[in-house]
Specification:
295 residues, mainly alpha, 4 strands, 71% helix, 5% strand
């Protein structure tokens, strides 16, 4: 009776020990093949909960990064467009200075007028540029044209486009209403250039008021470009913060989830050695006959 009980306990304990070692061996083997030490919630419940939080934060980070990229693209495009506009307005200013000299013939004034008219068309076209989403760069609260020729002047979109979200409750106004830089309280760039063109084609003097409006608008375009540049710098800083936060989360994730290859291989080999020794010992002891046991 005692022999049977002892034999049963020996088999049970040996089986339990080998099963535990085999399970441990299988776990290490899976960690090596997957590169992960956290394979299921029961492996580390606290770590698993932290990992879930990191994954949610990463998902939010992906969306925030996409928002930032769009804002950066929009601001860059707006800046580039304003640079092109500045170049044209500077050329217009040069032509006006040339037109004001008393040495121009009627045909020379007409040629200047033609070039100024082309500059006006280009400026209006640039004002109506659209971003990557197909939305006006310099429009209003709706997606209609930013600036429309209306007689000698311009009609501008109403309001301003909504701010673009960045993340963490932050946003940026990546666009500006064209009226903010192409118009003055009394005139706009189209009215000014049209007045100058009309005067030159009539072989008359350049209207001083129109010339002043041209200078004011040119300064406003440069000022707007500087403002957008400052906003772009803020967005770039926010992008760097997002990248740093993502890097920190990756370090935390790796510490929770990733297995150390060298350490895991050592533990696998150690477990395999113990398992083999246990199996060999069990095989030797279990092969003993009752007479061997009694002896």
């Amino acid at each position: 009776m005692s022999v049977n009980l002892s034999t049963s306990l020996f088999y049970d304990r040996s089986t339990s020990t080998m099963q535990a070692l085999q399970s441990k061996f299988d776990t290490f083997n899976e960690q090596i093949s997957t590169g992960k030490k956290l394979l299921k919630p029961s492996d580390d419940s606290v770590g698993y909960q932290r990992l879930q939080g990191i994954q949610r934060a990463n998902a939010d980070g992906v969306q925030d990064a996409a928002n930032v990229k769009l804002a950066q693209s929009t601001l860059q495009q707006a800046g580039t467009t304003l640079t092109q506009m500045t170049d044209r307005l500077q050329r217009a200013a040069e032509l006006v200075v040339q037109a004001k000299s008393g040495t121009n013939s009627a045909s020379a004034k007409a040629a200047i007028a033609t070039e100024l008219d082309g500059i006006l068309q280009s400026v209006v076209s640039l004002a109506n540029a659209k971003d990557a989403r197909g939305m006006p760069l310099f429009g209003g609260k709706d997606d209609g044209a930013a600036a429309t020729r209306n007689g000698d002047g311009l009609t501008f979109a109403i309001g301003k486009a909504p701010a673009m979200p960045l993340g963490d409750g932050q946003s940026v106004e990546a666009t500006v209403n064209a009226k903010d830089f192409l118009a003055t309280p009394t005139s706009d760039i189209a009215a000014a250039l049209t007045a100058i063109v009309t005067a030159l084609r009539a072989d008359e003097e350049v209207p001083e008021g129109a010339s002043d409006t041209l200078d004011t608008v040119a300064d406003q375009v440069i000022g707007t470009q500087a403002s957008l540049g400052a906003r772009a710098a803020r967005v770039d800083l926010f992008a760097a913060q997002l990248k740093s936060a993502a890097d920190d989360r990756e370090v935390a994730r790796s510490g929770i989830e990733d297995a150390d290859p060298t350490e895991t291989i050592v533990e696998l080999q150690k477990t395999m050695t113990i398992l083999q020794a246990t199996q060999a010992s069990f095989s030797k002891l279990s092969s003993l006959s009752l007479f061997d046991y009694l002896r």
